[in-house]
TrEMBL record:
Its EC number is 6.2.1.3. It comes from Xylanimonas protaetiae. Keywords: Ligase. PROSITE patterns: AMP_BINDING. Gene3D superfamilies: 3.30.300.30, N-terminal domain of ligase-like. This is Long-chain fatty acid--CoA ligase. Residues 460-535 form the AMP-binding enzyme C-terminal domain.
Length: 551
């Protein structure tokens, strides 16, 4: 693999130019595969032109926000590009949010047009009587034979119908009908500029208060160029990406939609991660590139071994969102013969800022090295103007062309996150070794202070997760008077285990953890809350424990 450049040029073109180029240079290449329904780049560009005309007719102008609350589907991809073609701003929303929360975020963004999933459109419309809510039935993206099969009175058809289709508003507009009847947007319609706002993505971070990250066209295009420099992907080769990560999350949006289009890849689009569906798609159209999170890789590896499925076509997997266990990486590479590396970033970095090299230097468990044109510092969390000594723990600060400009209508939050010189405070505690590799220790806002000592939850979780009796764990700090906080572990028992006591857990952990870091409380739960891409949500765990545990 050729050497990765230290810098890249910031592109001077907006995002729609990415799709235009792919359609011009690779018109007959399949852009999207949705359960066997193939859409070429020429067809995608044509559909986007008609969809843009639909939105223009509904009053969308440059700078207007349009909310997209859809699962991964060709309709989602079309809507994304259509909004951007008009110079509008895509507001990405989780389609499984409750209607009230969806309405709150739509109101915060100022969006007046909402493209809503048929399963939720009726409840969303009821919460937003003044908005233009357009119903999108993603089952219409399926192959014709599969659309027909959904009507069959059999259990499998009912299950898939329930997963994809709902009861839309009786008098609401229907997306597919509107697009089919529309004429293409005139080619001379003005295009957006690289500096224009492109996307709003809501992130709660550790505070739980959702705020919209503003990403401009240049942020997303340069991060795609940085990614291409890192992977070496060439649009001349027909790569097959697996679009399993949700598009409403920055990781999935960038790698499985924007970056995929930059390299003119074929994307196998899956509305959610399901092992059986993934392996069936792999038999039909073998993949070469998989952005994923560690639990996905682990489950695929196990299932492929059990079912003797062939995953050997995947040359590269990129893991993010949480630490990649060495055993998961080793198992994936042994099974596929390909490489798996860890990447790191935030929505605020468009999202990728660091990655492990795609060669023998890769290190599972380490965040890796800075992307091209990306700078890092390790600073004192209490005074980020001061860097810590080499090798010491500190807060990771990032600067680069992919770093965002601020939060939507949140000047105070923006000022707290962005320091002079364009340095972004990540809130992540890291160390950097002599070779420049960055390793995550924990998040500043989730570090537990007990008796004057700092306890890093991820280190305690890593130890407890290795205990055979524990399936999953979240470690949080709970109020403890003069002590400050006490370390409490919420655990899910492994299959077949009926009970586990605190003494046994402390004995297990004491071999690797300082005494002050050992759990002082243990709560057994049936499941733990996870984010859309699989990360345990410690904040939610702590809130639940605060309302349920005795003082």
């Amino acid at each position: 693999m050729k050497a990765t450049p230290h810098t890249v040029a910031v592109p001077d073109w907006p995002l729609p130019a990415v799709l235009d180029r792919a359609a011009r240079e690779h018109p007959e290449r399949v852009a999207l595969d949705f359960f066997g329904a193939a859409t070429t780049y020429r067809q995608l560009a044509d559909t986007v032109a008609r969809a843009a005309s639909v939105l223009a007719a509904r009053g969308v102008r440059a700078g207007d926000r349009v909310a997209i609350a859809l699962p991964n589907s060709p309709s989602h991809v079309v809507a994304f590009w259509a909004v951007l073609r008009l110079g509008g701003v895509v507001v990405e929303l989780n389609p499984t949010l409750g209607a009230a929360e969806t309405a709150r975020l739509v109101a915060d963004s100022g969006a007046h047009v909402v493209l809503a999933w048929a399963k939720t459109a009726a409840s969303v419309a009821a919460e937003l009587p003044d908005a233009d809510v357009v119903t999108v039935d993603v089952s219409r993206d399926l192959p014709k034979v599969k659309q027909w099969a959904l009507r069959l009175p059999v259990r499998s058809a009912r299950a898939q119908r329930d997963a994809l289709v709902g009861t839309p508003p009786a008098d609401g507009a229907r997306w597919h009908a509107l697009v089919a009847a529309a004429a293409p947007l005139p080619g001379e319609h003005p295009s957006p500029a690289p500096e224009d706002l492109a996307v709003l993505i809501y992130t709660g971070g550790t505070t739980g208060d959702p705020k919209a990250v503003m990403l401009r066209h240049r942020h997303l295009t340069v991060n795609a160029v940085q990614g291409q420099a890192w992977t070496g992907h060439d649009a001349a080769a027909a790569e097959v990406f697996y679009g399993v990560l949700p598009y409403f999350h920055a990781f999935g949006l960038q790698l499985c939609l924007v970056y995929a289009t930059v390299v003119a890849a074929t994307v196998v689009v899956l509305p959610k991660f399901d092992v059986r569906t993934f392996l069936a798609a792999q038999r039909r159209r073998p993949g070469t590139f998989l952005p994923a999170v560690p639990p996905m890789l682990a489950r695929l590896t196990t299932a492929a071994r059990e079912k003797q499925a062939d995953l050997g076509s995947f040359r590269i997997a990129i893991s993010g969102s949480m630490a990649l266990p060495a055993e998961t990486a080793q198992a994936w590479e042994a099974l596929t013969g390909g490489l798996v590396i860890e990447g790191y970033g935030m929505t605020e970095t468009s999202p990728v800022a660091l990655g492990s090299p795609l060669d023998e230097r890769r290190r599972p468990g380490a965040l890796g090295l800075p992307f091209p044109s990306t700078q890092i510092r390790v600073a004192n969390p209490d005074d980020p103007a001061l860097d810590v000594a080499p090798g010491e723990r500190g807060e990771l600060l990032i600067a680069g062309p992919q770093v965002f400009d601020g939060y939507w209508n949140r000047p105070e939050d923006t000022a707290a996150a962005l320091l002079p010189g364009g340095w972004l405070r990540t809130g992540d505690i890291v160390t950097v070794d002599d070779d420049g590799f960055v390793t995550l220790v924990d998040r500043t806002k989730e570090v537990i202070v007990t008796g004057g000592f700092k306890v890093y939850p991820s280190q305690v979780e890593d130890r407890l997760r290795a205990m055979p009796e524990i399936e999953d764990v979240a470690v949080v700090g709970m109020p403890a008077g003069d002590l400050g906080e006490r370390v409490v572990a919420a655990i899910v028992l492994a299959k077949g285990v009926t009970s586990l006591d605190l003494t046994t857990v402390r004995e297990w952990a004491s071999a690797n953890l300082a005494r002050y870091a050992l759990p002082r409380g243990l709560v057994v739960v049936t499941e733990l809350p996870h984010s859309a891409i699989g990360k345990v949500m410690r904040r939610v765990v702590r809130e639940r424990l605060l309302t349920s545990m005795p003082a």
